[in-house]
Amino acid sequence: MIPFTLNINGRLVGYDRPAVMGIINATPDSFFAGSRTPLSAQVAERTRQMVDEGADMIDLGAYSSRPGAGDVSEAEECRRLREALESVRSVSSDIPVSVDTFRAGVAAKAATEWGADIVNDISGGTLDDAMFETVAALGVPYILMHMRGTPADMQTRCDYADVTADVIGELSVRLHKLSLLGVNDVIIDPGFGFSKTLEQNYRLLRDLDAFNMLGRPVLAGMSRKSMISRLLGIDSGEALNGTTAVNMLALDRGAAILRVHDVRAAREAVEIYSAMAGC
């Protein structure tokens, strides 16, 4: 892993070992039932648990992007995020919080009104043309994820000549656009499970260190996803052990951030990997 810094509300935060980002879903229908926290009290309790277990960041979403999920209006997404962010901040005023949204308007309100620090966009700016300009105006770090199409049709868009080269190429074009707008705090997410077949997900994991050529920290978000459960013939509720296995492989290939449902397990993986890497 290459050490990195993020400008969080004018405060330069340094990371000299892989960071753990805990997932909180303020939704009733996220793919992993154990992550669903639609009530404010549940969000606060999950935040408290993640902070105690060593989370470096929290990622908060209010729009399920799983295939087949129903649409959520912008007003409803805003309502969920506002209430959830208030709950997170009631537990911790300083932990960096990213908002998982592809809508520029939602991102702007979350950052200027509700206390969000980072924008995490599953579409990499492809679902809202105003997103890049909005992030530039906000001056917040941005997670640039790779996806083709929409969550409804993304799994029909897996036609790559070379999945690793094509994903890096598509991300590099978007990264250049962000750079021209003055957005420098960018985190790269290859988009495991989004517009990728099972085999393509593992090819990306094998080649994860190639993404370091983009010169930005790389986020690995594989927690309990179907690339694990389908391969092993289990459901997402049984996929913690598999998640730890792929997270260790990601760490060995230079991942700077692990985005996970289970903070304690990921923190232990980071501790073990760091001890080994330091020997």
Strands, helices and their partners?
Layout: E1 4-8, E2 11-15, E3 19-25, H1 40-52, E4 57-61, H2 74-91, E5 97-100, H3 104-113, E6 118-121, H4 131-138, E7 142-145, H5 163-180, E8 186-189, H6 198-206, E9 219-220, H7 226-232, H8 240-252, E10 257-260, H9 263-277
Parallel strand pairs: 3-4, 3-10, 4-5, 5-6, 6-7, 7-8, 9-10
Antiparallel strand pairs: 1-2
Question: Could you characterize the architecture of this molecule?
Answer:
With 279 residues, the chain is α/β, with parallel strands linked by helices. Helix content is 40%, strand content 16%. The protein is built from nine helices and ten strands. The protein has an eight-stranded parallel sheet. Strands 1-2 form a two-stranded antiparallel sheet. α8 runs parallel beside α9 (263-277). The protein starts with a strand and ends with a helix. 49% of the residues are buried. The mean pLDDT is 92.
Structural class: alpha/beta
Unreliable stretches: none
One letter per element, helices H and strands E, the order comes to EEEHEHEHEHEHEHEHHEH
Shape: globular
Number of helical elements: 9
* Major beta sheet, strand line-up: 8-7-6-5-4-3-10-9
Q: Give the averaged pLDDT, no decimals.
A: 92
**Amino-to-carboxy terminus distance:** 15 Å
Strand content: 15-25%
Rg from alpha-carbon coordinates: 17 Å
* Helix proportion: 25-40%
Overall number of strands: 10
Sheet bearing the most strands, described? 8 strands, parallel
Keywords:
eight-stranded parallel sheet; 279 residues; 9 helices; alpha/beta; 16% strand
